[in-house]
Amino acid sequence: MNDADGVSDTQGVNDANDAKGVIKLLLAEDQGMMRGALALLLGLEEDFEIVAQLGNGDEIVPRALETRPDVALLDIELPGRSGLDAAAALREALPECQVLILTTFGRPGYLRRAMEAGAAGFLVKDGPVEELAVAIRRVLAGERVIDPGLAAAALSAGPNPLTQRERDVLSAAVDGATVADIAAKVHLSPATVRNYLSSAIGKTQTRNRMEAVRAARQNGWL
């Protein structure tokens, strides 16, 4: 990552953060081995302190309010609240904490939703930890750090065509739920659910609700 939106020249950023002292980090990752490895590697940086390691999205905001991290590293797919939903809640509850989304799923729709949630950065997990360390210092310095390849893909993909209600209905249909089950879960009538499903199927250019769910997830719209 070496262009204007990626990780590049960092000497000025490093010097600025050295003057501020230790950078406190909150790490939310549902895979224990990955979480432990990231914490260990980031902990080797002299100016980093891991103040919280979490495996559930519902814990992010309460622990952040307790530990007051400077930067929160959030995975997207977490048990409980997703990393994207937690990012929005965290930006409201603790606006001084910068949010950096770190995920395996480099999907354009996820990037758009992360930016809408107020995240300062979005990186995929296949980069070296040294680049992640640089990105942490950059977002703390007020910069926005985005994987350049993903940024280009997001621009070409266009906006999410689904309304919030269509997303809600498709999310409730993920496990093959019946229309009645979906209606009960989202507090709508079965007829209204059918209308939203039909609209979502049309917008995703698929043949049925399960194909619509797959297409929406692949694009990061759910």
Structural class: alpha/beta
Query: What portion of the residues fall into strands of 2 or more residues?
Result: 5-15%
- How many alpha or pi helices? 11
CATH topology of the largest domain: Rossmann fold
Q: How many domains is the backbone divided into?
A: 2
Helix content: 40-55%
> Which regions contain 5 or more consecutive residues with pLDDT less than 50?
1-19
Can you tell me about this structure?
It contains eleven helices and six strands. It has a six-stranded parallel beta sheet with strand order 2-1-3-4-5-6, sandwiched between helices. Helix 6 links the parallel strand 5 and strand 6 (145-146). The protein has helices at 11-20, 32-43, 60-67, 83-93, 108-116, 129-140, 148-157, 164-172, 179-186, 190-204, 209-218; strands at 23-28, 48-54, 71-74, 98-103, 121-124, 145-146. The protein is elongated, with a radius of gyration of 19 Å. The relative contact order is 0.12. With 222 residues, the chain is α/β, with parallel strands linked by helices. The chain folds into two domains: 23-155, Response regulator (Rossmann fold); 164-219, Arc Repressor Mutant, subunit A (Orthogonal Bundle), CATH 1.10.10.10. Residues 24-140 form the Response regulatory domain. Keywords: DNA-binding, Phosphoprotein. It comes from Streptomyces melanosporofaciens. The modification 4-aspartylphosphate is found at residue 75.
